[in-house]
Amino acid sequence: IYVVDARAGASVHRLTSWGGPDTGPIAWSPDGKSIVYLQGSEPRLSAYNQDVLAMVPAEGGTPRLLTKSLDRTVSDPRFTRDGESVYVLVEDDRMRYPARVHVANGRIEKLAQGERVIRAMTMSSDGHIAVLMTTPSSPDEVYALDGDTPRRLSHQNDSLFAQLALGTVSGISYTTKDGNEVHGVLTKPVGYQEGHRYPTLLRIHGGPNGQDGYEFNLERQLFAGAGYAVVSVNYRGSAGRGRAWKEAIYADWGDKEVTDLLAAVDYAVKSGIADASRLGIGGWSYGCILTDYSMATTQRFKAATCGAGSALQLSMYGDDQYIAQYDQELGPPWKSQALWIKLSYPFFHADRIKTPTLFLGGTRDFNVPVIGGEQMYQALRSIGIPTQLIIYPDQHHGIARPSFQRDRFERYLAWYAKYLGSAQPITVGGGKRQ
After folding, report:
1. Which backbone phi and psi does 411 adopt, to 5 degrees?
2. How does DSSP assign 199-219, residue by residue?
3. What gap in Å lies between CA 146 and CA 156, rounded to an integer?
4. Are 256 and 245 in contact (CB under 8 A)?
5. What is the pTM (predicted TM-score) of this model?
6. CA angle, corner 282, sides to 277 and 333, nearest 5?
7. pLDDT one digit per residue (tens) for the chain, 434 residues
8. Are strands 357-362 and 303-307 parallel, antiparallel or unpaired?
């Protein structure tokens, strides 16, 4: 963080010297004596970063880390009018909510908690707070935050959603074979009936430093509307559960995450929701990487969609944007050859994969270049597994063109329908299809 007077020829004064990232948004205290900002994790943990609210005197000095004991990532700091507190957003176990941090002693008041996600927050000059909030049944709308209760101000999507039937969303929790408690969300198909089993999709978020939460998710609802149950898991490496949870997969990709993901499928089957004979899997970015890992671990999935991922990790070195992470977390390939080959096991053991897979990517993806999908497509073609490769021209890591977004969704639905059969339930106990 630097400060400089707003005049020609002014000198620049450096305030912080942390070796990791110091990022914004930054905010001045009302009296102009302090600045709050976000201090990230040390450089070697760049993929598992967790921002802490920090405050430094405007004249320079030692920063104070105000939310270090919270063990959750925070964002969007804003001073109160009296300068005695700072509002932040906290990412916490499928939720995102505001909190008030008292400057004097670091005491934290959690506000407006509940099964919802607050994406953004703003504050007026007289102290009123507005937030952009979503719930599992409602996309983003504007709310006023009066104390601890959000009060809805906008109704942008009411007329559309009055016409829609949505799948119900609930939190899930289960224990893995290695004793870890994992959390996620389950979206039941529209028209769900107790006592029936449904074709079920394991949809994996990217990052890995992200989380699936109590929010409206178009993709999950699209699948629910087509008759699928959707399981979304905050596997080890995800946000919302603290530093140790994120860092558990450091230099050990495709191991603990797969354990967590497959245990979620076991949970869905044991709960009487999932039809074990009609399981699908898929994801984008790290979600696709974990799809590759999972397919090379088990043959229980009958269909997969895999976008913007990679499996031969060796080939990503020098071709994507993660060289600093690779060097610090794994070591260069010429120094850590065995580790790089180990982490590339979906490609080197592609002959274990029996799942028909649709691979997708964009020609201008410099985050996870499309070669990652091309290689796995060719591997499955070579061993005779049904596969397709879809490449969207002039698209980056996120597919931005609306017609391509629609095309991608339509291809997802067609691929799952082809290999999982009709998205209709069967009665528990193996009765006739209903």
Report:
1. -70, -40
2. EEEEEE-SSSS----SS--HH
3. 21
4. no
5. 0.93
6. 125
7. 999 999 999 999 999 999 999 999 999 999 999 999 999 999 999 999 999 999 999 999 999 999 999 999 999 999 999 999 999 999 999 999 999 999 999 999 999 999 999 999 999 888 899 999 999 999 999 999 987 889 999 999 999 999 999 999 999 999 999 999 999 999 999 999 999 999 999 999 999 999 999 999 999 999 999 999 999 999 999 999 999 999 999 999 999 999 999 999 999 999 999 999 999 999 999 999 999 999 999 999 999 999 999 999 999 999 999 999 999 999 999 999 999 999 999 999 999 999 999 999 999 999 999 999 999 999 999 999 999 999 999 999 999 999 999 999 999 999 999 999 866 666 544 433 33
8. parallel
- Amino acid present at 346: P
Mapped onto helix, strand or coil, the DSSP state of residue 3 is strand
Cis peptide leading into 425, omega within 30 of 0?
Answer: no
Structure token pair of residue 283: 């994801």
**The token pair that represents 251 in the structure block:** 């230099």
| Tokens, residue 153 | 């101000």
